[in-house]
Amino acid sequence: MEPMAQEQKELFGYPYPWLRSCWRELSHRYLSQTLPHALLLVGQRGIGKADFALNLARLVLCQSVTGSTEALFSSNLGASANLVSSDDSVSKSDSMLVEDDRELPMPCGHCRSCLLLRAHTHPDLVELEPEQKGKAIKIDQVRELIEFVSKTSQIGGYKVAIIRPANALNINAANALLKCLEEPTAQTLLILVNESPQTLMPTIRSRCQIVTLPLPSTQLAQAWLRQQPQVREAEVKESEIDQMLYLTHGAPLTTLHYFCGDMQQNRQQVLDGFLALTKQNMTPVSLAAEWSTLDVIDIIDWLYYWLKGIVIRQEQVNCAGNTSEIVMAPVLATENELFDTVLRCPALAPMALHLFVNVLLEAKAKLVTTANPNKQMLLEDVLIKWRQLMMQGPRVDWG
Ligand SMILES: [Zn+2]
Q1: Ligand 1 centre from 22 Cα, in Å?
Q2: What is the pLDDT of residues 286-304, one digit of tens each?
Q3: Ligand 1: distance of its center to the CA of 65 in Å?
Q4: Rounded distance from Cα 116 to ligand 1 centre (Å)
Q5: Given this structure, which CATH class describes domain 3-212?
Q6: Which CATH number is 262-398's, of 1.10.10.10, 1.10.150.50, 1.20.272.10, 3.60.140.10?
Q7: CA angle, 159 as apex, 153 and 162 as ends, to 5°?
Q8: What's the whole-model pTM score?
Q9: What residue ranges do the domains of the chain occupy?
Q10: How far is the C-alpha of 386 from the C-alpha of 342, rounded, in Å?
């Protein structure tokens, strides 16, 4: 592949197509100097909140924003048009994914600021994250941020701080951050990123302008995924894209993540373990320990997907094929074995699976809405309930 083609695929600072309307609004507010000093970007996992925040930082720090004037509009047109026509397999409807970009304000990608950003060495951008994944953002990190905000910018424009996930701020850190939010310094933009506004302190929330980033339509998500090199190279089937989108509740980046890296392997590991638990060849505690390196939300999502599959199969059996729900063809061979093992379980009460679906939904809600939840304990609790269900049916004390 030619270097230029690769470059175009990673258009610097371009928003995902489903976030374009949010981009349009915020970039125009920036250019008209009406951007608030603190934004809180919220939305479902896997829709690109972090990338959006970083792109916004790039726009605000760029010294030569393009796309906002007639002259730059035409020079940018070439890049977009090439992207569309470079591959014949991109259908006309898919080309809608990029055709609007040329008119949106974008970071130029070439000025001193943009070059520093590309090298991840821009002195006026700070990204505040937990030092370890899943841990809290500490007060010392916020103190450094306060110092950063109080100084003048080094390049001579804006200073930007991205804080994510904002609910990782522990109470002391959040209180320290309030100072920045209450007494904003000029030409400073704080971007807080979180799945839900509800898990943040009201005092933090009320000092930020909340921007809700949307999910794409299924059609747009499918079209976008089909265009991604990883999906093309892996020759992923359309039906598999649809299934994974269903599994990730329509989140395109989580779906894409599944098709690259070790997600497929992880999913198989969870499936094997869950089958072993169902067959009582493993205990809930040892299984939770085996899964400790995996993402708990992924695990809960997969379990939810399989449970839905089992419930649908159970309904089909009970109603002799008269079901209105979509039948999901299993992707993995082990899934069939799991479905059969569960449905043949003698202790399985009629409503037991629905009750367990609720257990999973509650666990997911806890993971998303609690600051620093104890993930290991939560997972053990879910698995213990499953084990009880398979051995003796649902218990009254579940809730
Ligand atoms: Zn630039």
Answers
A1: 21
A2: 999 999 999 898 899 889 9
A3: 6
A4: 9
A5: alpha beta
A6: 1.20.272.10
A7: 150
A8: 0.74
A9: 3-212, 262-398
A10: 11
